[in-house]
Write a structure and sequence with these properties.
The protein has 340 residues and is an alpha/beta fold. The protein has two domains: 137 residues, 3-Layer(aba) Sandwich (Rossmann fold); 187 residues, Dihydrodipicolinate Reductase, domain 2. Strands 3-4-2-1-5-6-7 form a seven-stranded mixed sheet, with helices on both faces. Helix 3 packs parallel to helix 5 and helix 3 packs across helix 8.
């Protein structure tokens, strides 16, 4: 089997998970080079990695670059992404900067792998909350065509990075002991609370946040359905890992809950846990550390025809970020799109 030289850009929560998943999945890597802002040694699962300061020269002679997802004008993919492509790397970017770029496929391998054929050396990983939703909805969309989605998310603090996980852990210890919450990552205490805002408010979508707008636009692009109406409300909850979503979806044709269960039970990357009478349904604690998207509470909406409600949970750092990125690289190798 051909081996590939892989660059991992960033060594935070997602970067470390990228390295772990490359090893877990026996990715055909002859080398894993780690780049970050400064040189240092980082240990991942007992293996030491010498971190090299990020520069365009560091992508020389490498095959695949997996960007962990720092965003904005000073983010790694903005600074180095297209330059890495010019150096001969295929880039898979976890960040938001190029997801809606017409040059860049936005891909969930179980949903739209055919989009990879049009890549120009740069592929975008969708937002974590979008990935799990479209993985669950795409098989149903193929059967009955989606008209409208209303989704409310319950997103874990790991979506804000390692500092947010540490902030929740500190508040869990200190607030019950009478100490002040002293929020830093979030504008409010997150322990024993929920915060109905993720991301900045968007001038072109009054009242909506960036996370909510991502779900709208990315869903349409991934499903190739620009007319799907999507409304999202994204909420941060005091859970360490795994995002949960309550989804109401309207179809153009009738689709029963039983048929939806059957379709999803056979869908790649989806696990159905749907026995509420016996308290069996997806839970963040059970889904943490897993790569599948879990679906349950599938039921017919009694208030409107051709509508279903469902509950969807996935590990946001794995399937919602690192695993999906590695799967993209694996799919590109399978399709003969890397190293030819």
């Amino acid at each position: 089997m051909k081996k590939y030289k892989v660059v991992v850009v960033g060594i935070g929560l997602v970067g470390k998970r990228l390295i772990r998943i490359l090893r877990e999945r026996n990715f055909p890597a002859s080398e894993i080079r780690v780049l970050a802002r400064r040189a240092r040694t980082e240990t991942v699962d007992g293996v030491d990695y010498e971190v090299v300061p990020a520069s365009l020269d560091a992508f020389e002679d490498m095959d695949i670059a997996l960007f962990a997802g720092t965003e904005g004008d000073k983010g790694a993919s903005t600074l180095f992404g297209w330059g890495a492509v010019e150096k001969g790397c295929v880039v898979v970017d976890n960040g938001n900067d190029f997801r809606m770029d017409e040059r860049v496929p936005l891909v969930v391998p179980e949903v739209n792998p055919e989009a990879l054929r049009d890549h120009r050396g740069f592929v975008a990983n969708p937002n974590c909350s979008t990935i799990q939703m479209v993985t669950a909805l795409a098989p149903l969309h193929r059967r009955a065509r989606i008209r409208r989605i209303v989704v409310s998310t319950y997103q874990s603090v790991s979506g804000s990075g390692g500092s947010a996980v540490a902030e929740l852990e500190r508040q869990v210890r200190e607030v019950p002991a009478g100490k002040p919450a002293n929020p830093g990552v979030y504008p409010h205490q997150i322990f024993a609370n929920v915060i109905p805002r993720i991301g900045g408010l968007q001038p072109d979508a009054p009242g909506y946040t960036s996370e909510e707008v991502k779900m709208v636009r990315e869903t349409r692009k991934i499903l190739g359905a620009p007319d799907i109406r999507v409304s999202a409300t994204c909420v941060r909850v005091p859970v360490s890992y795994a995002h949960s979503e309550a989804i109401n979806v309207e179809f153009e044709e009738p689709l029963s809950a039983d048929e939806a269960r059957d379709i999803l039970s056979q869908a790649p990357g989806v696990v159905v846990i749907d026995d509420p009478e016996n308290d069996k349904y997806p839970l963040p604690l059970d889904c943490e550390g897993r790569d599948e998207v879990f679906v349950g509470r599938i039921r017919e909406d009694t208030s409107r025809p051709n509508c279903l409600d469902l509950w969807c949970v996935a590990d946001n750092i794995r399937k919602g970020a690192a695993t999906n990125a590695v799967q993209i690289a694996e799919k590109m190798i399978e399709m003969g799109l890397i190293g030819v």
